[in-house]
Design brief:
By secondary structure, the protein is an alpha+beta fold. The chain is built from three helices and six strands, in the order E-H-H-E-E-E-E-E-H. It has a single domain, classed as 2-Layer Sandwich (Alpha-D-Glucose-1,6-Bisphosphate, Chain A, domain 4), CATH 3.30.530. The protein has a six-stranded antiparallel β-sheet with strand order 1-6-5-4-3-2, covered by helices on one side. This is SRPBCC domain-containing protein.
Length: 198
C-alpha cells in the first residue's frame, strides 16, 4: 500500500523495509510511545544489547513522559549520542509520524550539536549524487478504534557509486530491519499492558 513518505525523494528505492503489527489497544494508547522515540528521550524500545554494541548511547524508557509528547514538524529525532539523526517532516496526531533525511535538501536548520548522515565522499553532491531515506510510522484504527494496525516503512533512495550503495544497504539497512521488528514487538506489549517482556 502507498504510505505518506514513499515519494518524498525522487528516484527508485534501492531498499524498502515495511514491518507491521496489530495491537489490541486504541491508537491513543499506542501513538505516545512513538512520539517520545529518540536517543535523548525514551530510546527506540529495541534490543538494548545491539544498541549498546553499536555505541548509540541509548537507554530505553518504557513509561510515557509528558515532557516528551510535544513532537512537531521541524523537530529532530536523535539516533546516536554523537547527535546524528533525522528531521521530523510531519506529525498527524494518533495517525502518522514521518521523518526524512534528504541529501538533495541539506540546508535545513538543525538544533545545536545535531547532524544528518547525508553523504560520504562516495555520495558526493558535487557529482550529482545523493542519498535520501525516510522513516514513516502509520497507525490505522481497527474494530471501531479498539485495535490499531501499525505499519512502519523506511524507503532509501540514492544516486551514486554502486559499491557505496551496497555498503549502505547492508551496513545500515539490515540492523534497522532487526531493530524495527523488536521495537514493534515491545510497543505492542507496552500498549496492551503485558510488559515486561518474557
Amino acid at each position: 500500500m502507498a504510505l505518506p513518505g514513499d515519494n518524498l525523494a525522487p528516484g527508485e528505492p534501492f531498499w524498502q523495509m515495511t514491518v507491521a503489527t496489530t495491537i489490541d489497544a486504541p491508537a491513543e494508547k499506542v501513538f505516545p510511545y512513538f512520539l517520545q522515540a529518540g536517543q535523548d528521550k525514551a530510546g527506540f524500545y529495541s534490543f538494548d544489547w545491539l544498541e549498546a554494541s553499536l555505541g548509540f548511547g541509548i537507554h530505553n524508557t518504557y513509561t510515557i513522559k509528558p515532557e516528551w509528547q510535544n513532537l512537531k514538524a521541524g523537530d529532530f529525532c536523535t539516533f546516536h549520542k554523537s547527535g546524528m539523526g533525522m528531521r521530523i517532516h510531519s506529525v498527524t496526531p494518533n495517525r502518522n509520524i514521518l521523518m526524512i533525511t534528504n541529501g538533495l535538501e541539506p540546508n535545513h536548520p538543525l538544533p545545536p550539536g545535531k547532524w544528518e548522515m547525508l553523504w560520504t565522499p562516495l555520495f558526493s553532491l558535487q557529482k550529482g549524487n545523493f542519498v535520501s531515506w525516510n522513516w514513516d510510522f502509520n497507525l490505522f484504527p481497527l474494530e471501531n478504534g479498539q485495535k490499531t494496525r501499525v505499519v512502519v516503512r523506511c524507503v532509501a533512495k540514492a544516486k551514486g557509486n554502486p559499491l557505496a550503495i551496497s555498503i549502505f544497504k547492508h551496513a545500515f539497512a539490515l540492523p534497522s530491519d532487526v531493530m524495527d521488528i523488536e521495537m514493534l514487538r515491545r510497543v505492542k506489549r507496552l500498549a496492551e499492558g503485558t510488559y515486561p517482556l518474557n
